[in-house]
Amino acid sequence: MRGVVNFYKPLGMSSNTAVGRVKKILGAKKCGHTGTLDPKAEGVLPILLDKCTCLSDMLMEGSKEYLATLHLGHTTTTLDSEGEDITLLPREEISVTREDVEEVIKTFVGEIDQIPPMFSALSQNGVRLYRLAREGVEVERKPRRITIYSIALEEFDDTEYFVKIRVSCSKGTYIRTLADDIGARLGCGAMLSHLARTKTGMFSACNAVTIEDLESKGEACITPIEDCLSQYDEIQPIEFFHTLLFNGQKVLLSKLKRDFEVGSYVRLLDKEGVLTGLALITENEEGKKLISLDKRL
Question: Residue 48, CB half-sphere, CA atoms under 13 Å: how many?
């Protein structure tokens, strides 16, 4: 069993619980996800099975898309609905318009520095930040460079001041922090009231599966790993060279009569055309290109 389950995590379920449920239903030996989704968030959570768990970092590299609902005039200790209220402005004191929101969200598009929230799973000196936050301790966090590829205003409620935005961003982006920053720039404050991840890399909510799907369809819900790696070039060396690579040896790329860019990955196929791993192209001190097995599948 190897592949990825494009799982749609429901509200209230932790990412680790989701992994455990999928593992049990499918009878997989090992499972892992490609990036934590908070229990209060729902959406796409790709879960890798068995040998494919080694690809977690690679599959996390893709962009993410979220549908986020912000509550203007409302700020909390956790930047979302889980925390204690800091401010909750009366609706009549908020004068933000749809045009204001559209203008402000444009200013966040591009590369920006973002300070991770205290209520996050990041560690500092071996301690998770959320543990410190629960003890009332706040520590300085270094800004991290992230990229917002696009933000679009989907809905604007000028009665209760709920705003829904669609955000496409790089990995490592905290939507709670983005919501807080948008609220600050609007001058009224804001917190994240609901979050759904609609895309991560090649995986989308439109073809994600639920617990019920898994229980009724089983292995039919698995996306073959070949489909997940189709963006990479492939190489099918003769059996002698395949054996060398599979045993961990480096081979001069010129001997395989192929050429790829240094730093790129290629799919390694055996003589039957079966995907056996991902190979990495490197360069030796003499400037000659080498190929070696990096991910064994």
Answer: 20
**pLDDT of the residue at 127:** 73
How far is residue 182's CA from residue 242's CA, in Å, rounded to a whole number? 53
What's the pLDDT at 38?
87
| pLDDT number for residue 140 | 74
If you classify domain 233-296 with CATH, what class do you get? mainly beta
pLDDT of residue 128: 73
Q: How does strand 144-156 pair with strand 162-169?
A: antiparallel
Q: CA-CA distance, 256 to 249, in Å (whole number)?
A: 14
Both tokens assigned to 72: 């203007």
- Measured CA to CA in angstroms, residue 174 lies from 81, 113, 192, 194, 251 at distances of 15, 11, 11, 13, 42
- In the predicted model, is pLDDT for residue 118 greater than 70? no
Q: Cβ distance 144 to 116 under 8 Å?
A: yes
**3-62+202-228 — its CATH code?**
3.30.2350.10
- The catalytically annotated residue of 38, 50, 80, 181 is 38
Active site residue 38: yes
- Residue 126 confidence (pLDDT): 72
CATH class of 64-200: alpha beta
